[in-house]
Amino acid sequence: MAPSKHGVHAAAWSVLLRMAVAVNNGLAQTPQLGWNNWNSLGCDVSEDLLLDTSQKLLDLGLRDVGYNYVVLDDCWSDGRDEDGYLVADSTRFPRGMKFLADAIHEKGMLYGMYSSAGEYTCARYAGSLDHEEHDAKSFASWDVDYVKYDNCYSMGRHGTPKISYDRYDVMAKALNATGRPMLYSLCNWGEDLTHTWGMSIANSWRMSGDIYDSFSRPDILCSCDDPRDPHCIAPGSHCSVLNILNKVAPYTDRGQPGGWNDLDMLEVGQGGMTDEEYKAHFSMWALVKSPLLIGADIRHLPASALTILNNPAIIAINQDPAGRSAHRIRINLDVKKDKYGVGEAHVWSGPLANGDQVVAFLNAADEDLKMEAGLDEIFVDDGPEGSAPQVKLSWEVYDLWGGRMSEKTAQKLVDASEAGVGIAEAQKAADWYNTTELSYADGLQAQDSRLFGTKIGEVKAQGTLKATVKRHSVEVFRLRSKGGETKRYSVHREL
């Protein structure tokens, strides 16, 4: 059985895809992609918002590139009826939740809803604590596909991993008992070491306090003095991109097919970061295998943000069938600090199912940097001190942002979606990747060029990868073996 140019056996690839591991419900074999209203709109929710957003996901091509969950967050309910079942706000949702789910399903997308493992939700609506069976039955009867489950007003039922696990496990069991598969997304902010138990009951689990629209600014509301401390998992809010990355770095390996570290929703398009910072934010969430949920109001999405969110070469890393996160292999604190005293540089590396390797140079310094990493460091997980067999191979280098859609093309898509005319023509001209026609796994096997970026050079055996990285930005590369057999990775997590 001869390998392809890049050492991928078609038969071996097929075996990998059949070995998918589920947590307990068969969902989220790769991290979920979609949209959630909270970061941009908070409690300003309605039936019209969800329907208009679903249509925008279609018109802008975001559903086709993979964003297929439409998730309604807090503030949708109007308490409970006399039998103890949740009631939707009839002013905001006059035709009810089943109608909304049906309408979203008709557009080829999936519908998600929100509750909290507390007496109240975070916005002080009725919570699900001690009402789990009722609420799970309601979600199932409405044909919900995704449940985001928050952590406010827990009535003191937290403080140890076992107590928190038990509180969230009640809803896990109730959802499973309905017989309807619903993706279960924990939002308990990393409290009580969620990364040690979340994978036992959920498809994703938040591992930090809430994100806000900043790349690196410290904020007292985001707990802990040093986010690089692996014990710094206290909840909070106003957590920057860099803060969250530093918190997750020690346990990126806890994610696996069926269950993922959730770094919180994407801020791309909100307006608080530069284009380079948003590019870095999106790239690193993808590499760490976080769920990718758009948090911006896409009814008013800037064209520049669209060119970040629809990059199939980056999304393909997130959706790689092996489900193995990249992890940080080096951090350099001896760089120029900004006015807040923040400045560092990272090298991240991770294996991909077909034997390729993804490498990211993240520059969080207050200046442009020349960065590099030798093959001995890039492949350190496969053997220390340069003993990994991959070090003896030469590698083609592909820039995963090299094929980024032009802002001019993206603007045509935005204009067409706003006018409601010329959408099909604009979509055809954009030539983006369409997962409804070819999944990322199949596209990788078929060597679809849109998933591999732009070839920019090669690294010789025993050599070094080098790049100049702009301030608060990232360079992301896919390394492809230039001849020679490379290690393929099973989608089973190696224990």
Give your account of this protein's structure:
This protein is an alpha/beta fold and 495 residues long. It folds into two domains: 21-318, Alpha-Beta Barrel (TIM Barrel); 327-404 and 434-481, Sandwich (Immunoglobulin-like), CATH 2.60.40. It has 15 helices and 18 strands. The longest helix is centred in the middle third of the chain and has 17 residues, at 161-177. The radius of gyration is 22 Å and the shape is globular.
Concise structural overview:
The protein is an alpha/beta fold and about 500 residues long.
Strand content: 15-25%
Shape: globular
Mean pLDDT score: 92
Strand count: 18
Low-confidence stretches: 1-22
Q: What's the arrangement of strands in the largest beta sheet?
A: 9-8-7-6-5-2-1-10
> What about the largest sheet?
8 strands, parallel
CATH C-level of the largest domain: Alpha Beta
**Count of all domains:** 2
The portion of residues assigned to helices is 25-40%
Total number of helical segments? 15
CATH topology of the largest domain: TIM Barrel
Estimated structural class: alpha/beta
Q: What would you give as the CATH superfamily of the largest domain?
A: Aldolase class I
- Assign the CATH architecture of the largest domain: Alpha-Beta Barrel
Radius of gyration: 22 Å
End-to-end gap: 29 Å
Function: Hydrolyzes a variety of simple alpha-D-galactoside as well as more complex molecules such as oligosaccharides and polysaccharides.
Enzyme class: hydrolase
EC number: 3.2.1.22
Organism: Coniochaeta ligniaria NRRL 30616
